[in-house]
Every structure is written in C-alpha cells, then in structure tokens.
Amino acid sequence: MNKKHKGGCHCKAIEFEFTSPDNVTVFRCNCSICQMTDYVHLIIPASEFKLIQGNPSTYTFNSHVAKHHFCTVCGIKSYYVPRSNPDGISINFRCVDQSTFSQVEYSEFDGQNWEANAPSLIHLSKPQK
What is the CATH classification number for the domain harbouring 40? Predict the structure, then answer.
C-alpha cells in the first residue's frame, strides 16, 4: 500500500514529500560519493516526489547525468536524480521520517562496478501498478 512520507535536510531549508509503499528496500552503495556521504538510496518514480520548500544547489560529475542536490545552508544531500534512473528520484533514507514505514529491508549495491550493476535498479523508478 502506498503512503505519503516526508523528509528534508538537517536545517529544514529543504523539505519534500513523496509517495511510496510503507514496505521498502533501500540500498547501501559502495561507490565513491555514496561511501563518503553514507547515502542510503530509496529510488522512486519522479512523479511520486514533490519538493515542498527550498532551492538546492546541484552538483554533477563524470557523465553529468546524475543531478546531486544539496542544501545551500547545511550542505546535506537529501535527494538527487540518479544516473541509473534519470526518470526517478533517489531519496536519502537517512533524511526521511522513518516512522511512516512498516518494514525496511537493507540491500547492498556494488556501485564500484556501476556499469555492470546499474541495470538491476532500472525498474525502481517505474510507476507501480
């Protein structure tokens, strides 16, 4: 069952809401940027995400497909558009009110070998039927 969830950055200058099931799988990635920031991914369709307030700064690197959004006040990256799912949003599960979820499964993602493993994430940004 889909529910509305809320999240944002540390200082609350960025706030968002999104719809997703309350039973989710989130991904811990070992790529360079995720490992350094301890980012935990919850990937959803972009249509299920709504920025409530804030004007984040954007950082890109390498292929420049991923759009990493940061709060200009506290520097936290609470969500971004991932290269693996340019039609979706990856929400940092650490930046979400987790009390609205009934079950969370943690899965490891080998981002150090991104090219070989990214196709396994593509279905996550497709609307659920």
Answer: 2.170.150.70
